[in-house]
Specification:
The protein has about 290 residues and is of the alpha/beta class. The protein folds into two domains: about 220 residues, P-loop containing nucleotide triphosphate hydrolases (Rossmann fold, 3-Layer(aba) Sandwich), CATH 3.40.50.300; about 50 residues, no CATH class. The protein has a six-stranded parallel beta sheet, sandwiched between helices. Helix 2 links the parallel strand 2 and strand 3. Helix 1 crosses helix 11 and helix 8 crosses helix 9.
Amino acid sequence: MKKVVVLVGPTASGKTRLSLEIAKSLNLEIINGDSVQIYQELNIGSAKANPEERQMVKHHLLDLKKAGESYTVYDYQKDVRNLINQIDYPFIVGGSGFYIKSSLYDYEFNYEDQKAINYPLDYEEIIDYIKINDPNLKIDFNNQRRVLRAYEQLLNGEIPSKKTSKNDPLYDLLILYLDYPRDKQKAKMIERVEKQIEEGFIEEVQNLREKAIYIDDIIGYREINLYLDQKISLKEAKELIVKKTFQFSKRQKTWFINQMKPVILDAMSPDLIADGIKLVKEFLNL
């Protein structure tokens, strides 16, 4: 199986710095694992690697789409798997857990328009067919999309109840989780927001608004938009960004540890970079 290195962790944990040091040391290419950094013009608010950092290490899937364009987890899955096949030592770095896991494990997405398929049976007959041919399948028969997907699998000779795809890795994985102490995390997030404002985060959101791009579903962009709409003050916007980021980081940690069973690295360790390089080097047999 192809070896793939993955570095995940919550927002503002120091993934970029560590990933650059590991990649430079071992000549790895970084694949973006952040669903926001895929978009052009979402730079400061997404903490995207800057031009100087990108010159140090080759990066993939940054600035792939214009802000506002459609790009699904299914698109990401296809692009990442293609890159893994092309790159000698792929190194995925980011915090978008579902995007990353769906690319590395045997997730199946079905984006066909089910209504356009001419099924030979009516819906009740399809349910009966599933019950007869896969009696062990536990499925919500009121969920038409899942029912039709199970029916398609049976027609293709697959037994849906025997599939454990979502936890079957497609690659030989080393997954590292960069853990930052909760009691120190908030202070770092406050510092991060202040730096983003200084670097022009407000102007970045203003430029998007001038192009009729109004983002209200991404932490940071949503709060700055509220400030520009004069619904909250800048102080309130910054406090909200820190609060929401802090809450989100807790959910990220729970998800990564439960879903991906990573090797945990202490972000505060003085030996962090050396330890990270050593782990990756041994895994890749370099």
